[in-house]
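## retry 2 of 3
previous attempt timed out at serialization; input unchanged, resubmitting
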Amino acid sequence: MRWITICLALVSLMTSPTLTAEVWVMSSQIGYDQSDNKVAMVRSDQPDRLSTEATFTLHDDSSDLAHQGQLVAHGERWAAHWWEADFSSVLTPGRYTLHIHDGDEVIAESNPIDIGEQLLWEASYPVIGSDYLKTRSQQARTGVGWRDCGSDLQEFSSHAVCVDGIADVIKLIAHKGPEDQLVFLQDQLIRGCDYMARLQDKAEVEGLGRGVVIHEDRDRDVVTGNIAKAAAVFARVSRLIQTHNPEKSAEYLERAKLAFDWLEDHGPVDPVGEQDFFAAVHGAPKGSAPPDGQWMTRDLVTMTRAAFELCRAGEADYQDRAVAYADLLMQRQVPEDEAEHGYFGHFYTYDHFDSFDGIRFTEKANIHCGAWSKEGRLYNKGGHYPHYLLPLIDMTREWPDHPDAERWKQTLHRFAHGYLLPACRSSPFLILPAGVDREHSLVHFGSWYHGHNNIYAFTASLALELGELFDDPQFREIAVANVQWIAGLNVGKLEGGGEGEGPAAYLPVSMVYGVGQRSRGSWTKIPGSVCNGFSASRQFKIKPITPATDLPIHFDDEAYIAHSLPYLAALARLEAYRSE
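## retry succeeded, writing output
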């Protein structure tokens, strides 16, 4: 198998198409909601392919002119040159085509561009929120939960993320819709939680502890973040299904408490064995290993959330624990006078860095490295949520008179304005970077195990919540851009150039399989699957990157339930907060 992989890689390198100085238009392949920002990006491999006088026109399906404007140059980014066409002022639903002009020449045109009311939601919800979940459940190897990726794996972390996304959809949208769809989604919550419960029960049978969860039902791997997710997600679902299924509600609440209490007594779980992937993924010094006895910041966030969800589920004694974990989290925030390459408000990975000779580094958006423990992946398993400060937002809203409420809000403000907004604005697509590299500033597409489209979905949800908290519309622009990256407004996938294929071209692709005019990325061909996405290194490989190699040159086409449901949850927030 290894020789096959190597040979395929060599063939790929030898047969990569040669590009001439062309121009391509990148636009959403699912469409644009009429009341949100609407932009397309123009790509070229040459900086002077378009003059400073280049313009665009937008034409309706009768070829009548609907809008025109000047292209805005963004310069070079990721070994390409970019210009922006903004047609946000077009509010009339319909199908359009964008033409790129330079002088008297029309040098490129877009795919058909759809504009409509609730277009992203209406295209995605019937697929992901129904048939996708049904098919994934039918293919589940164990008979419970879902098939979670291209193989028959069923990870704890992916199930927790999927359940959490369904819970968002129920809370934000589905409770207002048809009763049968609400019941279906509630039953899916139970399906996912029952698989999580299976992994909790198996951990106890294996003698690992009561409340512990293992990562997959064919291993014995115990990860701090998974146990914290168990507490948070079980508690949340317990509250959401209290009327629908009181017996399961009570069971999940007890499981949440067991998970939280075990982790409080025994956590964090120290890493076992060599962790080869640690340094590259975390931006730690080369050759270093994870420290004993220290929580990662992302796990403090999840413990804060778990305690808050337990309190919200009626367990008032956990309020003090939520406050305590929030305090530990806030102590790690990067102050402005310690800004990393100009960015502040994000978080150091640990309290202290004694085991790294004092070299400090900050937490990255996604550290997940797959299900298996080989090659030292265990420590990173399930590290999906990127800077996901929702518990601080929820606590600020729910407990506004708490003595720490103003500190929570100030922490959120520093993160939002010192990191999230400027970091997303560092690229023309406004997407969340992978993090700040201590030597090279922001990196976008590594070092990670494969593309992580869920970070863009989570960022959209977080930005919308911050926009509501601070009454600031610029966060919605960030949210829309991160969702649209998945929907097709991205750098484009290089296709063609082979025999009988026509010239090579960068084509915008929806990464929601089966949804949109041109979709890509699903080994299983299950509609609604969201693939891993763009990466600087080949799928399932870790390659340390520098600014020169931080390029979206690989399209990682395996799909994953930990991408699809966060994407749907972000769309639910877009709709819920639009109506408000």
